[in-house]
Design brief:
Layout lengths: L2 H5 L9 H13 L7 H8 L3 E10 L5 E10 L7 E7 L5 H17 L5 E7 L8 H15 L8 E5 L5 H14 L22 H17 L14 E5 L3 H12 L3 E7 L2 E4 L6 H11 L9 E3 L1 H5 L5 E4 L18 E3 L8 H9 L3 E3 L1 H4 L2 H14 L6 H30 L9 H20 L4
Parallel strand pairs: 3-4, 3-5, 6-7, 6-10, 10-11, 11-12
Antiparallel strand pairs: 1-2, 2-4, 7-8, 8-9
Helix pairs in contact: 2-4, 2-15, 4-15, 5-6, 7-8, 7-13, 7-14, 13-14, 14-15
The structure holds nicotinamide-adenine-dinucleotide.
């Protein structure tokens, strides 16, 4: 049983990832006018699902077999785009649901991409760098022509990094000589055509989305992040960058965590000190002048903003009633279950959804893809400001549409849609419209 499922076992929710994405889709689809059944069926299913099994020689000369998935959900707007995660709990159903999420995310921020996702079942902590390199190369070669700069473009996700992306690029480039293959993967190291601002993009985007949302003055006394208490679950690419970004704007990072547990200091943590401690010790737990807490305690802390930036299904029907934050900002993908969404909404706690909040990553990935094709490298300020503008536009679109529902468009005043549903309505409308314009071939 995946750990995130175990954490939610107290609740009676159906935590099957496909069931969750269908429920989220259905809640939005009923609000999209004129969505025909054939189109609904097309949008619900992935375009293609690749399952690959392959052997790898380990450092001790044994041979192990690995299973990995690459799912393409939709290519209506362009090549498919989405990260690859390495985790022991990866399932095909999870990868399918994450590929769908990428379709809606790209549509919401108006990127010329469809959605895809990859997952490889492994525990990176028990593998050497040489083993990880061989696993990554073999997975890439198994996908061969399924990937491509105008076909399907991976990026980093859970437990994959710019090093993983460099191996994917190198393998693809060796197998496809004679072309500019740099745009085949994003999140690469800067020296290999990576983009300035890509590593920081998702965490920075979390801040930009939150600032823009708070500026709408929907939550009394929360109009700016300065002085707000922020608790962050996960201290990886997304969580650590978000901690620094919020801290620079005057927010108080009261707690952070990783897979080993969490740390708390009511006076606020210094994210840079946490980062160097984690780099030395392998975990945030044990930093001086902090209290050790569990990940569950972190989620239920007294704070203003809760920013999950680790795994899925962390806020569920079993703990949503205990959440004390006034705003949930979804840095991770799928951290909140539909049951929790309902409980939080009834308690007046807004959730800024993943497809809006963490879209900064795929947005700067898009800029990396553009830079690679025109052989340019833009500076950090350029990519970050372009991304900020896109996130602001998307927040405005979601907020304005939500307000339109509040003043009358909603089916019933006691069933007002939440921000996730509204974000999905906008994304589904865009993909549905483009699908109909393209028509069916042949
Ligand atoms: P990462 O591997 O860099 O970091 C993951 C963090 O989560 C680590 O600190 C890890 O210790 C922690 N973690 C793992 N298991 C945990 C547990 N059981 N409880 C608490 N913490 C735990 O991954 P990342 O790239 O930061 O991705 C985090 C989330 O953000 C994922 O859901 C991912 O899909 C999503 N996301 C990432 C990006 C990106 O650009 N990297 C973009 C969009 C969304």
């Amino acid at each position: 049983m995946p750990s995130e499922t175990r954490q939610a076992e107290d609740s009676v929710e159906n935590l099957d990832p496909i069931a969750i994405s269908e429920e989220q889709f259905n809640r939005a689809a009923v609000l999209v006018k004129g969505l025909k059944r054939g189109l609904v069926e097309f949008l619900k299913k992935p375009k293609r699902v690749n399952i690959v099994n392959f052997p790898v020689e380990m450092d001790d000369d044994s041979v192990r077999s690995f299973t990995a998935y690459r799912v393409v959900h939709n290519r209506v707007f362009g090549p498919s785009k989405g990260g690859i995660r390495y985790h022991p709990d990866v399932t095909m159903e999870e990868v399918i649901s994450l590929a769908k999420l990428m379709t809606w995310k790209c549509a919401l921020v108006n990127l010329p991409f469809g959605g895809a996702k990859g997952g490889l079942i492994c525990d990176t902590k028990s593998l050497s760098e040489r083993e990880l390199r061989r696993i990554t190369r073999r997975f890439t070669s198994e996908l061969f022509d399924e990937l491509g700069p105008h076909q399907d473009i991976p990026a980093p996700d859970l437990y994959t990094s710019e090093q993983t992306m460099a191996w994917i690029f190198d393998t693809y480039d060796v197998l496809h000589p004679g072309f500019n293959n740099r745009p085949v993967v994003t999140g690469k190291p800067i020296e290999m055509g990576g983009s300035y601002g890509r590593y920081e993009a998702t965490g920075n985007g979390c801040l930009f989305a939150t600032q823009r949302f708070l500026s709408k003055a929907l939550i009394p006394e929360l109009e700016d992040v300065s002085g707000l208490r922020v608790a962050i679950q996960g201290f990886g690419d997304v969580g650590a960058v978000a901690a620094n970004a919020f801290h620079r704007q005057g927010a108080k990072i009261v707690a952070v965590s990783d897979s080993q547990g969490g740390i708390f200091n009511a006076a606020g943590l210094d994210p840079a000190a946490v980062e160097s401690f984690k780099a030395e010790q392998g975990s945030v737990v044990g930093l001086a002048d902090t209290t050790t807490i569990t990940n569950q305690e972190l989620l239920e802390l007294e704070c203003d903003i809760l920013l999950p930036a680790a795994l899925g299904n962390q806020i569920h029907a079993g703990n949503a009633a205990n959440i004390k934050a006034r705003l949930v900002v979804e840095g991770a993908n799928n951290p909140t279950t539909p049951g929790a969404d309902r409980i939080l909404q009834a308690r007046g706690i807004h959730v800024l959804p993943d497809i809006l909040v963490n879209a900064g990553g795929v947005t700067v990935s898009y800029y990396e893809w553009v830079q690679n094709q025109i052989n340019q490298q833009w500076d950090y300020a350029t990519t970050t400001e372009k991304m900020r503008a896109k996130i602001h536009t998307a927040v405005d679109a979601v907020f304005n549409r939500w307000q339109a529902f509040v003043v009358g468009e909603a089916p019933a005043q006691n069933h007002l849609p939440d921000f996730r549903t509204i974000a999905l309505v906008i994304a589904i409308e865009r993909v549905a419209h483009a699908t109909l314009m393209r028509g069916i071939w042949p």
